[in-house]
Amino acid sequence: MQMRDAINAVMRREDLSFDAMHALMRQIMTGDASDAQIGGLLVGLAMKGESAIEISAAAQVMRELMKRVELKAENVVDIVGTGGDGANLFNVSTAASFVAAAAGAHVAKHGNRSVSSSSGSADLFDVAGIYLDLKPEQVARCIEQVGVGFMFAPNHHPAMRYAIGPRREMGVRTLFNILGPLTNPAGAPNQVLGVYAAELVPLMAEVLKTLGSRHVMVVHSDDGLDEISLAGPTLVAELKEGEITQYTITPEELGIERQRLATLKANSAEDSLRLVKAALSGEGAAADMVALNAGAALYCSGVADTLKEGVMVAQDAQASKLPLEKLKELSHFTSVFKH
């Protein structure tokens, strides 16, 4: 299918086939599409609403072209959000990564600079003294030896450069806003994926099923977060053993008291780091928020048999202060690669 025909099809609100979308995405990611064509297709898809098949095909192309991180480790999990929830909270998923690692998971964290907050995971790692510009084999060593490693998206997805211009100029949400979490360079089969809208919860679970994920929780809270919320119910679509189930969870049923989010807002990466360190040490509402999300990662990775057990294991890790040691360990470990 020609790009022009595809743009006309999506403008008529027709879904594209997997093969057609795969070919179009490959055109974009290899520099064979003009900025106008890229913009036209992305806006057309956004107005129609991207289908699970279209998203799966686009993610598959990105996976084919990315620089992979080869891992020997078992129980590999990613904790990631689409961003775009506008909540300006501290970096919950990054803090949860260190708690999950301290409790025995291998966390392959994939992220970028800020989308929805004052601090994306990469911004936080910068101020924590964690070196980001790592080769794939160096990231693998972090994950296997420390238990957590960070894959800075631009280092692993060089083909994305062809879409940067049109995306920046359009300034609207497109397919690319949800592709990052679907294209983990370590191929993490287990994932806690936060999304910015409730309608994406079943959709992204369906996409990850198509892409062959093992155990995933896609989450969006009633108060609009791309995380499991401490302040109220969270909608979940869980993919496990090829089956998707949808349900709602609350902090209370996981053994945690509901609390307001006002104290969890961060205005800078430095603010975020302060709250992350509190969370890693088991202090305050930040710790409870992180325990919920780390607990989900421990459940998805197989370290815990149930979500509630995962939260309890996360809290035990926080009480030991080991997650804070993991943060220091990763900073020290990556500093060796600077030279």
TrEMBL record:
Residues 4-65 form the Glycosyl transferase family 3 N-terminal domain. It holds the Pfam family Glycos_trans_3N. Pathway: Amino-acid biosynthesis; L-tryptophan biosynthesis; L-tryptophan from chorismate: step 2/5. PANTHER family: ANTHRANILATE PHOSPHORIBOSYLTRANSFERASE. The keyword Transmembrane helix does not apply. It comes from marine sediment metagenome. The keyword NADP does not apply. This is anthranilate phosphoribosyltransferase. Its EC number is 2.4.2.18. The lineage of its organism: unclassified sequences, metagenomes, ecological metagenomes. Residues 74-319 form the Glycosyl transferase family domain.
